[in-house]
Write a structure and sequence with these properties.
The protein is an alpha/beta fold. The protein has one domain: Divalent-metal-dependent TIM barrel enzymes (TIM Barrel, Alpha-Beta Barrel), CATH 3.20.20. The radius of gyration is 17 Å and the shape is globular. The chain starts with a strand and ends in a 5-residue tail after the last helix.
């Protein structure tokens, strides 16, 4: 296994400072969450400074596309607007040199009126279109398993079969949906060629807690080992914390585990 390690930015982080910190602490990339201070309209005027910051720090960039956006809405004009926004974000991802973009495959439909089965075809079409749009710009779109949505860990095989999208496996989201480590490992063993990005999201219970790596109860050894020795994707620490200390500790713990698993890089 030869993964690259990064982290997802949070609202309190100052963008260039976070990129510089990543370089100082041995991260390979930063996954910019394109919302709040890094919303597309705020990020667009800063393309030059973002690229310069990444070059100075010696790190790569990825993006997490904004959410929730109803790319799978059953309402045509709502869906079209969501697609236009995500396309504009993919254009910007290309501009800043990001190689991957995490996408939430969601609908936003009123659950009392629309079943998951009814909206999944709309999601499939939109994910397929955005995957092709990103590929034309050199940006790999990675659809993420969600919870309490049409595409959880239990349905992602359908999306992968019906589109060319890569996948972001979110460990915490899988736990919320009742998938234990053995179930996640089984999924990864089957789809390791399509799961090119992982959100390492720890939790103590079936909730989306985003704890520091190792602070919860997820058995990451079992899950990561299932990726296999030839896997060379990206691992994002998705840690909700008010400071960098727990993020640094998370990387140390992840580095130790990867060394035990015989990972290189």
């Amino acid at each position: 296994m030869d993964p690259s390690i990064g982290f997802v930015t949070q609202g309190w982080m100052e963008r260039e400072a976070a990129i510089a910190w990543a370089g100082d602490h041995g991260f390979d990339y930063v996954e910019i969450l394109m919302d709040g201070n890094d919303h597309r309209e705020r990020l667009e005027p800063e393309v030059g400074s973002v690229r310069a910051a990444a070059a100075d720090a010696g790190v790569e960039l990825a993006v997490h596309l904004p959410f929730p956006t109803p790319v799978g809405s059953p309402h045509e004009h709502v869906r079209e607007g969501a697609l236009r926004e995500q396309e504009a974000c993919l254009d910007l991802a290309d501009d800043i040199g990001a190689g991957k973009a995490v996408l939430h495959p969601e609908s936003g439909a009123w659950g009392a009126a629309w079943s998951d089965e009814q909206v999944r075809p709309h999601i499939d079409d939109s994910v397929g279109a955005l995957t092709a749009y990103g590929a034309d710009r050199g940006v790999e779109v990675c659809a993420e398993n969600l919870f309490n949505k049409p595409y959880t860990i239990h349905e992602m095989d359908r999306l992968l079969e019906r589109t060319d999208a890569s996948m972001t496996l979110d460990t915490g989201h899988a736990r919320v949906e009742g998938a234990d480590e053995e179930a996640v490992a089984s999924f990864l063993g089957e789809w390791q060629d399509r799961v090119t990005h992982v959100h390492l999201n720890d939790t103590r219970r079936p909730r989306d807690e985003h704890l520091p790596f190792g602070a919860g109860t997820i058995d990451f050894r079992t899950e990561l080992a299932a990726l296999g020795e030839d896997w060379s994707g990206t691992l994002s620490l998705e840690v909700f914390t008010g400071g960098y200390d727990y993020l640094a500790e998370s990387k140390e713990r992840l580095d130790d585990l990867l060394a035990e698993l015989g990972a290189s890089g």
